[in-house]
């Protein structure tokens, strides 16, 4: 019997899991699934209707599913009153069932940002990325403050990721070289005060929808205070993977123009100190992507090229 592709297997398992939940929870059965959009080890996403309204259902899976669903509920119910209108928005929360790992939100209009960036002229690309920077600054504004950074946590996390790679592989060599650069940057950051906030947690173009002058942030999942530089680094690395800039110049391996556009919001630019902070988190994100994007070979050339430029520049 042929093996099912991992993506298909996870979609089928998640679909069965949702059907089992709905069979015993009539309130959740009000959601009528029409399409399984994606599934992984941590969550699955379905599009459908809730009592006639277009909606998406996020099903948290695995360890900590209940806690992650509660965190998503708390974040959206906090942010929605201040981000239901205006230029920067979040989706309307419709229903949450943390005990089952189920969160249901209204569908938002527009185009996913990575698709809008693909093929956009330079000026249009810069404007879209500037919108993203404005969204992040607005989202984080009520709960930002300075506290000491502990780079050792990120070094340990990066090494654990590297340990998943095959010994002697080219990818492992690159990741280990990146980790060595992080260790060189760490002393300048250890216990230095940096701007942290309750922010998105997975801030990238895949989780943003643009509808003209309005930008929506989706799949919000962070329940901790993190350095804003971490979100900025994640966005820039993700943009290089999913909708890469056509050419340089480059800074820390990524497009200088993208970085300038994202940090055009003064509140974000001011949060990128000390000087080594953003390069450190770009390295963290590059390691993360080298390890976790192995299942997506179409992204591999971009991430390896960015890692090579990062190493060459340092």
Automatic annotation (TrEMBL):
Swiss-Prot/TrEMBL keywords: Kinase, Transferase
InterPro entries given in the database record: Aminoglycoside_PTrfase, Kinase-like_dom_sf
Keyword Kinase: yes
Gene Ontology MF terms: kinase activity
Ranges for domain Aminoglycoside phosphotransferase: 37-236
Tree of life domain: Bacteria
Keyword Transferase found: yes
Protein known as: Ser/Thr protein kinase RdoA (MazF antagonist)
Organism phylogeny: Bacteria, Pseudomonadati, Pseudomonadota, Alphaproteobacteria, Rhodobacterales
């Amino acid at each position: 019997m042929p093996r099912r592709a991992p993506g298909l297997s996870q979609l089928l398992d998640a679909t069965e899991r949702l059907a089992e939940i709905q069979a015993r929870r009539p309130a959740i059965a009000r959601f009528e699934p029409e399409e399984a959009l994606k599934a992984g080890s941590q969550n699955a996403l379905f599009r459908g209707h809730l009592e006639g309204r277009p909606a998406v259902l996020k099903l948290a899976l695995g360890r900590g599913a209940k806690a992650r669903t509660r965190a998503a509920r708390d974040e959206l119910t906090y942010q929605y009153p201040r981000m239901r209108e205006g230029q920067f928005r979040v989706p309307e929360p419709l229903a949450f069932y943390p005990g089952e790992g189920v969160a249901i939100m209204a569908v938002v209009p527009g185009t996913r940002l990575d698709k809008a960036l693909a093929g956009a002229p330079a000026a249009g690309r810069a404007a879209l990325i500037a919108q993203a920077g404005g969204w992040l600054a607005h989202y984080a504004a009520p709960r930002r403050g300075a506290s000491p950074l502990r780079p050792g946590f990120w070094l340990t996390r990066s090494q654990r990721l590297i340990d998943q790679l095959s010994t002697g592989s080219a990818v492992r060599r690159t990741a280990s070289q990146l980790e060595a650069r992080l260790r060189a940057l760490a002393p300048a950051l250890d216990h230095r005060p940096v701007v942290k906030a309750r922010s998105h947690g997975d801030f990238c173009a895949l989780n943003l929808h643009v509808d003209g002058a309005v930008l929506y942030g989706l799949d919000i999942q962070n329940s901790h205070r993190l350095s804003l530089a971490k979100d900025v680094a994640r966005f820039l690395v993700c943009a290089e993977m999913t909708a890469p800039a056509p050419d340089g110049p480059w800074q820390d391996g990524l497009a200088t123009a993208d970085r300038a556009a994202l940090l055009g919001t003064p509140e974000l630019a001011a949060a990128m100190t000390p000087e080594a902070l953003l390069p450190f988190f770009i390295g963290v994100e590059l390691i993360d992507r080298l390890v976790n994007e192995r299942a997506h070979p179409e992204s591999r050339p971009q991430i390896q090229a960015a890692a090579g430029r990062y190493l060459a520049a340092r």
